[in-house]
Amino acid sequence: MIRVVLVEDQTLVREGLASLLALAGDIEVAAQASNGEEALRLIPQFRPDVVLLDMRMPGMSGLDVLQALKDSESLFPTLILTTFDDDALLLQGIRCGARGYLLKDVTLEQLTDAIRRLAAGETYLQPAVTSRVLKGLEKIRGDYDGFDKADPLTERETEVLRLLAGGYSNREIADAIHLSEGTVKNHISNILSKMGVRDRTRAVLKGLAEGLIG
Fold first, then answer.
1. What pLDDT, in 10s, does the model give residues 163-189?
2. Model-level pTM?
3. What's the confidence (pLDDT) of residue 75?
4. What would the 3-class secondary structure string for the chain be?
5. How deeply is 67 buried, as exposed, middle or buried, from its count of CB atoms within 10 A (0-12, 13-18, 19+)?
6. 165-169 long-range contacts, CB within 8 A, separation 24+
7. Residue-wise pLDDT tens digits, 40-66
8. Domains in the chain: ranges and CATH
9. Average pLDDT over residues 190-210
C-alpha cells in the first residue's frame, strides 16, 4: 500500500479527497491534517510514501510546511495540490522540495497516477502547467543564472528531457521513442548527472533556463 498524509484546511475537500483515494486499492490515507502545524506533527510521525499538500492555507501555508520539513530533514515526497493557477507558486514549491504539482480540477485517475509516480521515486508536473512554464521561460531564466552550465546532452538525451517536460512517465517515454524502460532510466540518470541536479523537475527547469528545450 502507498501511504499518504493528506494536508488540506477545508474539511469538505479533505474528506472528499480521502474518500476518493480510498477507491484506489493500492493507496491508503494514513493521516489527515487540517493546517500546517498539524502537518508538521503528523508527517514525521507517519513517515508517508507521499504527502498530498494544499498550498493556500491560513496561518502556515504549504510553502511554509515544505520549508520547515526541509530544514528539519523530514521532507517526504510531496505532491502540491492547489486551486490556484500560479506559475510562481509552482517554482517556489519546487525550490522548497516539492516533487509534483497538480491543480485540483484533475481527475481521480490523474491524481492517483501522480501519487503512484512519486511513490516510485519519480516526479510529476501536470502537463498543462509544464506547457505554461515553457512559455514563461524568461521569468524562470533569472532564477537559474547562477547555476553552472550543464554538460552537453546528446540528441537522444535532449529528446528524453523534452518528454520529461511534457510530464510523461518513464514507460510513456520508452513507448514514444521505442526504447526499453531501463534504457530510458539510464538516459535520465545521465541527464541528471550532466546537468548537476538531483531530480527530473529541476532538470526540466534548468533545461528551460539554458534554452535546451522549449
1. 887 777 888 889 889 999 999 999 999
2. 0.68
3. 84
4. CEEEEEECCCHHHHHHHHHHHCCCCCEEEEEEECCHHHHHHHHHHHCCCEEEEECCCCCCCHHHHHHHHHHCCCCCCEEEEECCCCHHHHHHHHHCCCCEEEECCCCHHHHHHHHHHHHCCCCEECHHHHHHHHHCHHHHHHHHCCCCCCCCCCHHHHHHHHHHHCCCCHHHHHHHHCCCHHHHHHHHHHHHHHHCCCCHHHHHHHHHHCCCCC
5. middle
6. 165/125, 165/130, 165/134, 165/204, 165/207, 165/208, 165/213, 166/127, 166/130, 166/131, 167/124, 167/125, 167/126, 167/127, 167/130, 169/117, 169/122
7. 999 999 999 999 999 888 889 998 999
8. 2-125 (3.40.50.2300), 135-209 (1.10.10.10)
9. 83
For 52, the grid coordinates are 498530498
Q: Which three cell numbers stand for residue 84?
A: 490556484
Residues in the chain: 214
Return the C-alpha cell found at 65. 510546511
- Please state, as a whole number, how many other Cβ atoms lie within 10 Å of the Cβ of residue 207: 24
